[in-house]
Amino acid sequence: MRFFRSFVFAIFLASAFFYFTTYRSARLSAPSWISHPQHVELTEAAGSQAFDAEEQNNISVYRKNIASVVNITSRVMTFDFFYGLVPQEGQGSGFVIDKEGHILTNYHVIAEARQVEVTLHNRKKYKASVVGVDKSHDLAVVQIKAPDLQPMTLGDSTNLQVGQKVYAIGNPFGLAGTLTRGIVSSIRQVQEPDGLVIDEAIQTDAAINPGNSGGPLLNYHGEVIGINTMIASQPNVGQSAGIGFAIPINTAKAVLNDLVTLGRVRRPALGVRTIPIDAEIADELGLAADYGLLIVQAVPGGSADRAGLRGGTERAYLGNTPIMVGGDLIVSIDGEKVESQQILAQIMNRHRAGDTVKVTIFRGKKKLEVSVELGEARDQV
After folding, report:
1. Nearest Cα to Cα of residue 251 among 229, 284, 270
2. What's the DSSP call for residue 154?
3. Which of 74, 93, 108, 351 is catalytic?
4. Does residue 39 have an active-site annotation?
5. What is the 3-class SS of 178-205, one letter each residue?
6. For residues 333, 339, 345 and 351, what is the CA-based torsion angle, rounded to 10 degrees?
7. Which secondary structure element, helix H or strand E, spans residue 99, and what is its range?
8. pLDDT one-digit tens code per residue, 191-238
C-alpha cells in the first residue's frame, strides 16, 4: 500500500510539472488574434520581370566567358617534422587563350607543383602540363588536351580609366564559376608578398579572394584586361577588403609568344648602363635637357651599341661615385618621356626581344632619333 501511494504521488507531481511548465504556458502564450485559415493568401509577382540594361550586360559577360574560366589545382610536396614529405594542395583560377588548350594563370598558382589538374566549367578534369613560366611577372601558361575549348578575347589594358566597370570571374575559396563586379579603383605600382613589383597594376574593388588568383579581370564588353593576382587584406584574414590587384593583360601579351614557343621569356633590353638626370645634374654637366637617362656605358655588342648609341668617354664624379660622362642622353622611347629607370623598365615590360623601338636622344645639343632592335636581357649583362 505504501508503494502504491508513492507511485500515485509521483504521477501527481509529474502531471503538475507538465501542466505548469508546458501545457499551461503554451496555452497562455498563444495570442487570441492568431487564426488558422484553410488557405494562405500570398502576394505574388505577376510574372518574370525584364532585366534592366545593366543586368543584361552582367548576364551577357558571364555567359560569354564562363566556359573559358577554369579551376586549377596544384599539388606540391612539403616537409612535415613528424611525417616527412607530405602532399599539399593549392587552388587558383586560369582562362583558356587558344583552342590548343593553352591556359594563362599566375606563376604562384602552380609554383613548385608536382602535379597540375584543370577542371573545366562542365566539371571535366584534365591533367595539365606546365608550358612556360615568367616569375618576374607572376605569369604561367599550362596546357591541357580537351575538345571544343572556347578561348577568351584579350583586350587592351592601355588607357584604362578610374571608374570604368570591371568584372572578375574565378573560383574564390573553391566556389567555381563566381562572378563579382566593381570598378577600376586606381592604376598603381604594387609589390607582391614575395617582393615582386607589378608596374601599372589594376586596382579594383571587385571582390577578389583566395582562389581568384590567375582568373580574368574583364571590361564592360567581356574582354580580358587583367589577370587577378593579389588582394590587400588585414593580417591573418586573407579575404577581400575591397582592394584587389590585377596584372595588366598587355604585360602578359608581350610575353605570351615566348612562353608558349620557348617556355621562357626573352626579356628585352637596350643594353645600356644609365644614370637618371635632374635639373641640378643637367646644369652641372651642361646637358640639353633637364631630365632623361644619361648613357654611362653602351654594352659592347648590345642593342644600343649596334644601333650607334654612345656611352660616356670622360671620367667624372657624382658625389663620391665615379661615372663616365659625355654619352648620349635618352629623353624618350616611342614618344614616351623617359624620366627614370623605372619608366624605362616599364617600357621594356611592354616589349620582347626582337622588337624595334624609336629612341630619342640628345648628343651634345643635337637631337636625334635612333631605331634600336631590342636584344635579350641575359645576353647584354
Report:
1. 229
2. B
3. 108
4. no
5. EEEEEEEEEEEEEECCCCCEEEEEEEEC
6. -20
7. none
8. 877 777 888 899 999 999 888 999 999 999 999 999 999 887 555 555
Give the C-alpha distances (Å, rounded to integers) separating 234 from 109, 207, 237.
21, 15, 5
Q: Is 221 a catalytic residue?
A: no
Residues 93, 213, 240, 303: which is the catalytic one?
Answer: 213
| CA separation for the pair 41, 19 (Å, rounded) | 35
For residue 90, give the H/E element and its range: strand 84-96
Residue 86 pLDDT grade (very low, low, confident, very high; cuts 50, 70, 90): very low
Write down the residue that cell numbers 578610374 correspond to: 162
Residue type, 315: R
Count Cα atoms within 13 angstroms, Cβ side, for 230: 21
Catalytic residue of the set 68, 74, 93, 138: 138
Active site residue 213: yes
- Report how far residue 371's alpha carbon sits from residue 212's, in angstroms, rounded to the nearest whole number: 41
- Domains defined for the chain, CATH in brackets: 62-143 (2.40.10.10), 165-261 (2.40.10.10), 268-379 (2.30.42.10)
